[in-house]
Amino acid sequence: MKILLFIAAMLVILAGCSDGRNEATESASAGAGKPLVYTTNYPLQYFVDRIAAPVVEVRFLAPGDEDPAYWRPDAESVLAMQKADLLVLNGASYEGWLKNVSLSPQRMVVTTDGLGDFLIPLETETTHSHGLEGEHEHHGTAFTTWLDPTLAAAQAASIEGVLAARWPRHADRFATQLAELTRELTALDAEAQAIVAGNPGLTVIFSHPIYQYFIQRYGLSARSVHWEPDQMPDETQWRELRAILGEFRAAWMIWEAPPLPQVSGRLASMGVRSAVFDPCANTPGSGDYFSVMRENLETLRRVFAADRPPAGR
Amino acid sequence: MIAVRDLTFGYPQGGFELRLRELKVTRGEGVALVGPSGCGKTTLLHLLAGILRPVSGSVLIDDVEVSALRLEDRQDYRALSMGLVFQEFELLEYLDVLDNVLLPYRISPALGLDEAAKQRAVELVEQVGLADKKNSYPRRLSQGERQRVAVCRSLVTRPRVLFGDEPTANLDADNRDQVMGTLFRYAAEKQAPLIVVTHDPELRERFPTVLDIRELTP
Amino acid sequence: MRDVIFMAWRYLRFYRGKTAVLVASISLILFLPAGLHVLVEQGAEVLTARAETTPLLIGAKGSAVDLTLSALYFRPPHVESMRHREVTRVDRSGLAHGIPMHLRFTAGRQRIVGTTIDYAEFRGLTVDRGRWLAMLGECMLGSEAARALGVDLDDHVLSSAGSAFDVAGSFPLKMPVVGVLAPTGTSDDEIVLVDIKTAWVIAGLAHGHEDVNSAGKDDGRVLQREGRNVVANASVLSYTEITVENMDSFHFHGNPDGFPIDAVLAVPASFKASVLLRGRYEEGDVPVQMIVPSVVVNELLETMFSVRDWVVLGGLAVGVASAMTAALVFALSIRVRRREIETIQKIGGARKRLVTILGAEITFVIVMAVVIAGVLTAVVSRFGELAARLVGA
Predict the structure, then answer these.
(1) What string of H, E and C letters represents the secondary structure of chain A?
(2) Interface test with B, best of C346, C352, C353, C364 (most B CBs within 10 A)
(3) pTM of the predicted model, to two decimals?
(4) Model ipTM?
């Protein structure tokens, strides 16, 4: 309910906002015809495309084999983004490179602006300051907001608001296409809720601390380690896992990508099975955001069903 | 062709008076006007040339009563019909030899400068032996050369009357002969009266008629 | 007429020294007020044009003239700084968008203007060679700045240290020149253009250094630990140049919303929006002032014009005195030429012709003086804009 109120509030604010330009402003992608929108990860590209196709052209610059969160644009990429009519950002500390580049604030929309209460600070980070009186470095936040379908819907609403303000001629189309997208996200959310409700209290280990928003949304009991799917953890890391397992009974570790067979084998010997939940930050090899998320939910279904306590107990 | 009758003249400030009952100079006649300094030779010359206007009496040149003309008409008549040579040459420093010779054409609306006049100027300059200095400026000329230029200037308009006021006073014998020779030749050719004021006894000898101003003006 | 011109010209040509002196002095008398008038007009045009293309300007409360001169013409800012949140205030009004300007630093004598890429679009700046700013630490040069600093593409520019009394106030940063702007004929030609974040690096509000977050407990660079915060000591040296290798280490200490800026260009969506916005700033309890630069410049120009008028009046007085002197010189010159005049009259020269010739001599001198004064005024008109900007710089 709260999130819906936030979406509504954001729409009202954005409807009142103007970036000082009207539709008569020439598109920066002169000669290409269509307005040009850049995004900083695949989910945002997908949302823009769902809302605004075929009115705008959407591009996303990070290479397919790189995690966009750790992508650093070079000068050429920045110059390309300067030509965009709109730059759609995730926010929530996602674009760490933003402080290093020169882009027009007038053409940016930070899709998680206004989600302040829902953003999860990374207080476990170490920061520094200079001298006893110096200011600290700014804390970051967790950034995989799109893994929570309700936050994803808020981000999509933020996108639609800016698109409608920039190109009011197509506002109706944008609104219709957003409504359809929001319906699908709501259905996804309901499905996930149902799966989790089937086995409340189940504790799951996550291989990487990137599922904070999913965990927050569905109230999962979860612990994270810092393991890479393509690496064998060292003995310190195995000890850390054993300590966690000593505190919490967990029969599953959820990975962002398939782990090494020897790792999943060793985990299995400890009674921990492995499952993959794709964080979907970059363009999937096949399918789209929803097909990936549905696959993720299938994985979740298996995890929550497999470890369900028997009825009557 | 120059006839003077009952001429009187005096300067406004007084102290000098000129009276002349009669004077006649015929065509081609050369007259030397002599007399002591201050007795009015130059004044008489100026009256004959129309530079000064008599208080009474008349000056006729070829039946034109020059003395009765208005100032502008006298100036035009003088430019058209008279040639004058002065003791101090009076060349303009900022004009070269040829342009000094052609000066009358530049300063009188009664004369029109044409190619014939320019040709005459060149010929006159050659006649007096200054062909190679026709583009020189007066400061580069000797006294004699400057006076020769002044003579050419007086002859370029083909005047009907020639006047000279001590034209050879500052010249050596050779230059004097050359200057006067040119004037005499022109006067003889054109049958123009030539009246010259002079102190030079040798020059006086060359004139058929010598008039002493003291005799002319009782 | 031909003869009159001939005589007058020959006289003037022969006495060319005297003629030159007369022509020069008269032309100067004519040129000084005319040239001054043109210069002032052009200066006014330059100032006005710049002001009219800047709809609204926001700065700390204080002298509107100082704010205008620093934000539009890049004079040293004598206004206080304000916080970057003033840009957000403008953006959130929905009536205009704000372009921040940081103006405190110089590179040599050229002003470093820290702003966003929107400034280039607003001022219609284009790239002559190289490219736009893309990365932190880069700079672009105005056409005149490049010439004055003697640098070009792929060279570096070093920001100047702050005043001798503010050694800790700025951190000289070595900035690669990635582009040179096409000339605009405005004060933008004189600037070193950087991203606002680069200006904050120079101000010491952002910096990069070796990682201390993961320093061990015996690391000599650590002063103490407070929970999850490492307090580093002064032995941690900051990088003086931002490169691809060290760029990721650059970070801000504190909230950038509170970082200093010197002016905000507010670009309203419409005239109505600008009126509404001005009303809010005039009536509202805001810690800053909003001015209309063209109004400020017009007031400044009125002062300039009245000063110019007094100077022109003085010039005219000098001119009258000089004309009288020239007339006296001419009268004396005629006296000296008495014999020449007498000769001309004696050989039959018409008085009228003589007067015309003397008149032609005067006319020639005046015409030549007028032509020279006209040429000088035209030169000032052609290059005066440049001179006005140099004087204003």
Answers:
(1) CHHHHHHHHHHHHHHHCCCCCCCCCCCCCCCCCCCEEEECCHHHHHHHHHHHCCCCEEEECCCCCCCHHHCCCCHHHHHHHHCCCEEEECCCCCCHHHHHECCCHHHEEECCCCCHHHCCECCCCCEEEECCCCCCECCCECCCHHHCHHHHHHHHHHHHHHHHHHCHHHHHHHHHHHHHHHHHHHHHHHHHHHHHHCCCCCEEEECCCCCHHHHHHHCCEEEECCCCCCCCCCHHHHHHHHHHHHHCCCCEEEECCCCCHHHHHHHHHCCCEEEECCCCCCCCCCCCHHHHHHHHHHHHHHHHHHCCCCCCC
(2) C346
(3) 0.69
(4) 0.88
